[in-house]
Specification:
The protein has 126 residues and is of the alpha+beta class. It is 26% helix and 23% strand. The chain is built from two helices and seven strands; from the N terminus they run ββαβββαββ. The strands form two sheets. Strands 3, 4, 5, 6 and 7 form a five-stranded antiparallel beta sheet that branches. The relative contact order is 0.18.
Length: 126
């Protein structure tokens, strides 16, 4: 990390590693809540989606999944897979994530809510 004009500046490698530690912390926090479980959904897709240039996958072109700074999670509550972005447990987890790091972006705040999405901002992309 570098400090430029009093601000900490990270390169992509540093930010990816920090994001990975952030997600581990979030998963551990969720695991401490009886009945709540998180599993990995889609993460880094730059080598699969858009490999042929057509961006045919489910992720926004140029979004955080392409830099390794975005990950979709799967939520289970008491064994049930929660697919509803409006489920209150997603809100609790999303708010916790946002509050744990200034770079964190939670998809529940997007114009089209995507509550299972967590990312770190990179060059204005979330």
């Amino acid at each position: 990390m570098k400090v430029i004009d009093g601000k900490v500046v990270m390169d992509l490698r540093e930010k990816r590693c920090l994001f990975t530690r952030f997600m581990a912390d979030l998963i551990t926090w969720v695991d401490a809540h009886p009945g709540w479980e998180l599993a990995f959904g889609e993460g880094y897709v730059a080598q699969t989606d858009a490999a042929n240039g057509d961006y045919d996958g489910p992720h926004k072109q140029g979004g955080a999944h392409y830099t390794g700074l975005g990950h979709d999670m799967i939520l289970y509550v008491n064994g049930d897979w929660i697919t509803d972005s409006g489920h209150p447990v997603w809100t609790v987890i999303g708010v916790r994530g946002e509050g744990r790091h200034e770079l964190c972006r939670w998809g529940g705040r997007f114009a089209s809510p995507d509550a299972n999405h967590f990312s770190f901002e990179w060059e204005g992309v979330r």
